[in-house]
Specification:
This protein is mainly α. The chain has one domain: Membrane associated eicosanoid/glutathione metabolism-like domain (Four Helix Bundle (Hemerythrin (Met), subunit A), Up-down Bundle). It has four helices and no strands. It has helices at about 1-30, 40-65, 70-95, 100-130. α3 runs antiparallel to α4 (about 100-130).
Length: about 130
């Protein structure tokens, strides 16, 4: 699972960066729990939360695709879609004057990755079942 491990490592580092961003805004607004009505904190929390909602499933699907001996080029393409999607979304949403093109691109890449990885897993698992 070297390819999945590679993307999981990069995404884990990005999650740490997003988490530090939340901590920094939290300290600046003296808010220990929730968003305290602070729009900047809410935005930082949602960037981190959205990441936490989509990345685990994306990595699980990538790992399953890798376990089904999917072509490494395809795995890298899927991993890059997830990584670029999450970077784009985080950048777009974290801006005070939100840039919707980055948000939409990020979600588009993330959802496309999930759909494509699901199809890769379905096709590979069906091929394995049929070959038995």
């Amino acid at each position: 699972m070297a390819i999945t491990s590679f993307y999981a490592s990069l995404l884990a580092l990005l999650f740490v960066v997003l988490s530090v961003g939340v901590i920094r805004v939290r300290r600046g607004s003296n808010t220990s729990l929730g968003d305290g009505g602070d729009a900047t904190l809410l935005r930082a929390m949602r960037v981190q939360g959205n990441f936490a909602e989509y990345v685990p499933l994306g990595l699980l699907m990538l790992g399953l695709a890798e376990s089904l001996h999917t072509n490494p080029f395809v795995l890298h393409a899927l991993g890059l879609m997830l990584l670029c999607g999450r970077l784009s979304h985080a950048y777009g949403v974290s801006r005070a004057n939100e840039t919707f093109v980055f948000r939409v691109t990020g979600m588009g890449l993330t959802l496309t990755m999930l759909i494509c990885t699901s199809l890769v897993c379905l096709l590979n698992s069906a091929a394995i079942q049929l070959s038995r």
